[in-house]
Amino acid sequence: MKGLFIVNPSSGRQNFKDSLNQIAGKLIMDKIVPTIDVFYTKKKNDARNRVALLSEGEYDFVVAVGGDGTLNEVVNGLILSESNTPLAIISSGTVNDFATYLKLPGASDVDAFCQMIKDFKLKEVDAGQINDEYFINVIAGGILTDIAYKVPKDRKAIFGKLAYYVEGAIELPKQFFGDLMKLEFEVDGETRQEEVTVFIIANSRSVGGFKDAVPMASITDGKLDILILKKVELFQVSNLLFKFLQGEHPQHPCIEYLQANEIKIREVGEKTDISIDYDGELLEGGMPIDVKVIPKALKIIVPDYDKEK
């Protein structure tokens, strides 16, 4: 067996490097993986470009080591390569939504990760395409979707998720009651116009560190879930937050919740500067966007949960 580790050395907290060395050492010393190659990223798209060069059978698996952005680049590279190479994930970033959703072992779970590679249980999962890019977890546009770009890397490395929450608390009053986005949604061919505060198109339930932000989403159903937050009046905020914490927000009157294979979103009227985040990356060009699901696009190495019982 031969593995390729794609490592973002600047992602997340700094103590993951020791754990990574332990993982690589245990895989080799226990003869789980006789050969490991390592590729360190230095700049944007390094991971994507390296993985896109993979040919079928060149490696038995590739490991994305980093945060959501690193995972996104590796996912893009794998889909572009058409190599059908299984993917493992070692999360060392700040949020790690997709890894959280799959309950994958983190960088510090050395034994659990190595056992997962040894068992080599594969799960076929959907991915999504937005214009000419690919994503595995989420697209978001509107309020607070630019938080990841406003928090300095050193603050994220020290405080982790707390850095996002603090920045969110600062930005929320500024953005929540601002101008709404006037958008046209074409969902599986049916068109509607909405005044929107924020929209989310999700593959998994976990978004922004919240495990059930999109509670009916599944990475294996061949669908994408769309959550649209419309205009919110001040008196509705507390009830909306309560329902969100209870996982009941899809039933709130300010929320529209849909499932679809394909979604097209356009601005209505004058073009504004709407930031579109996909898996922690900023989409160049912004609106309009064409989004569709790619069923069973990837094979993910996951723990053998049945074996653990």
How would you describe this protein?
By secondary structure, the protein is an alpha+beta fold. The protein is built from 10 helices and 15 strands. Strands 5, 6, 7, 8, 9, 10, 11, 12, 13, 14 and 15 form an 11-stranded antiparallel sheet that branches. β5 and β6 (133-135) form a beta hairpin. α1 crosses α5, α2 (46-52) packs parallel to α3 and α7 (153-159) crosses α8. The protein is elongated and about 60 Å long.
Element string (H = helix, E = strand): EHEHEHEHHEEEHHHEEEHEEEEEH
What would you report as the Rg, rounded to the nearest angstrom?
20 Å
Estimate what percentage of residues fall within beta strands. Answer: 25-35%
Class by helix and strand content?
A: alpha+beta
Average pLDDT confidence is: 83
Number of strands: 15
By oligomeric state, this entry counts as single chain
How helical, in percent, are the residues?
25-40%
List keywords for this structure.
4-stranded parallel beta sheet; 309 residues; alpha+beta; 11-stranded antiparallel beta sheet; single chain
Structure described in brief:
With 309 residues, this protein is an alpha+beta fold.
Topology:
Elements: E1 2-7, H1 16-29, E2 35-40, H2 46-52, E3 61-66, H3 68-81, E4 87-91, H4 97-101, H5 110-119, E5 121-130, E6 133-135, E7 138-142, H6 147-150, H7 153-159, H8 161-176, E8 181-187, E9 190-202, E10 224-230, H9 237-246, E11 255-260, E12 262-267, E13 276-278, E14 281-282, E15 289-302, H10 305-308
Parallel strand pairs: 1-2, 1-3, 3-4
Antiparallel strand pairs: 5-6, 5-15, 7-9, 7-13, 8-9, 8-12, 9-10, 10-11, 12-15, 13-14
Helix pairs in contact: 1-5, 2-3, 7-8
